[in-house]
């Protein structure tokens, strides 16, 4: 009998002690979950956003640098070609002036009146001699004034007076004999068909009172049928005037170099010498350009040879001057890059600030809830996924508030029930004395029931252990489901970001297609302009042909005009050739543009399909999230029912134990009624103590629930 009583007391104390220890374990586990963990730099959303936008800023900077370098290279290339073309045109223009000087000498050679005068045909007739002298002097003076390339004209013969635009006191014979003693005079006297371009003739400068600085070259040739020389000086000012009209800065230098090395510089700078700046290792063609290092600075050296005279026009352009031309591009590029960077940083700041503030508010409210304050209210003005998250958390807090409230009500009911059971146990003690008289009659049946009660008690112990196992497994499943829900929320956030990036990529692709189509329209417009240029070139070529025909009809008088017509024809052919090359380049560009448009459209369709796939994936995640939420709700219901089963389990175990004790005591009452009654009274007292402990546990449960505000 004492063995049954001790077993009952031991079993109930163990169960009560286990139930007291469980709340502490739950509290520790909850604190472990809520406890904030240290995060690395890349585990913060704000830092990830900033890093993402900084990558975009770096790409924008790289794009600006590449664009600036390409624009600078193209600008320098255009500057080089433009300067080279300008120098070629200057050379052609000066060559045209020198050809006009040659044509003038040919005209004098063919002039019969002039030939008669210098052969001495009028020496016997002073009147005709004077008339011829005046006529020729007037003609060369008029030619000097009308031709801007001519500085002075001198016609010398030993049989007539010198006719010159200069001044001399020597006779024709004296001047002719003195000129024969010079190098150039001896050359012309040996070969009457020879033509010379020299940069200096000191003898003529002295006797004719000429200044070397007034002319850059001197053209000399002899008469074919009689002794005499025709001398024409090329005006220095004419060349300087051409250079002065070129639109270049003062740091740019232009030169005219004769075959013998004499230089004419513009602007005049004694420290700059064109021949010294030339690269002696480069073989010069008719025209071209290259870079040279001169006096500690890089220069673009352009050159163009002037016909067959051996002279050359040159230009020396500092590379720093070309870089100034692209300064505006650099400023615009830097401004655009800075503006894009500032906008990206502002967007990053406001986005990260908005997300950070929302998450901070959510963490603050959840910490209050973790401390037991379930009255917290979560509200937000956002209309994105954070609003859904906050609404879900708010709904979770409301459900927890209702759950704690229900547990509190059940605990109060348990406490009241314990008081009622205590009264019943007191009544049971008084009634036990009356039961002792009937124990003998049911002794045989009670023995069998005692055995059955012992077996039932064993099975109830096993059932209690299985219920505890199910409760623990259900708790773990709930935690796994909660983690699954968090992972789904993160996946939904990532998919939304991917959706936004896909949409931005699609918009950029559409903009690229529009820009390429605009480029195609521009190419078509340029082709139209090229067609107009072809028409102009054809008309120019026809005009040149007509001019050549008219010049041929005019004979010697139209020879100079024939040269001009030939140059116009060449210019028309070059224009037509350039137009064809440009048309071919435009055709190639249009073909490439069409290929790029096709590729861009394919890329656009691919991105659209990706966007649809992202949306479908997002729908799947939303569906999974709803299913997980439903699963968590079901787990909570199961846990609530298991808790009720655990409460009822205690009552059933207690009842079975009491029945077993009563049966054992009833069986023993046949031997010793007084002992049975005494044991029953002790069992009743133990039962009363057990319900007192149950009442104490219910009170402790109410105090724990009181820590929550709801």
Automatic annotation (TrEMBL):
<dbReference type="InterPro" id="IPR003660">
    <property type="entry name" value="HAMP_dom"/>
</dbReference>
<feature type="transmembrane region" description="Helical">
    <location>
        <begin position="49"/>
        <end position="71"/>
    </location>
</feature>
<dbReference type="GO" id="GO:0016020">
    <property type="term" value="C:membrane"/>
</dbReference>
<keyword id="KW-1133">Transmembrane helix</keyword>
<feature type="domain" description="Methyl-accepting transducer">
    <location>
        <begin position="424"/>
        <end position="674"/>
    </location>
</feature>
<feature type="domain" description="HAMP">
    <location>
        <begin position="353"/>
        <end position="405"/>
    </location>
</feature>
<keyword id="KW-0472">Membrane</keyword>
<protein>
    <submittedName>
        <fullName>Methyl-accepting chemotaxis protein</fullName>
    </submittedName>
</protein>
<keyword id="KW-0807">Transducer</keyword>
<keyword id="KW-0812">Transmembrane</keyword>
<dbReference type="Pfam" id="PF00015">
    <property type="entry name" value="MCPsignal"/>
</dbReference>
<dbReference type="GO" id="GO:0007165">
    <property type="term" value="P:signal transduction"/>
</dbReference>
<dbReference type="InterPro" id="IPR004089">
    <property type="entry name" value="MCPsignal_dom"/>
</dbReference>
<feature type="transmembrane region" description="Helical">
    <location>
        <begin position="329"/>
        <end position="351"/>
    </location>
</feature>
<comment type="similarity">
    <text>Belongs to the methyl-accepting chemotaxis (MCP) protein family.</text>
</comment>
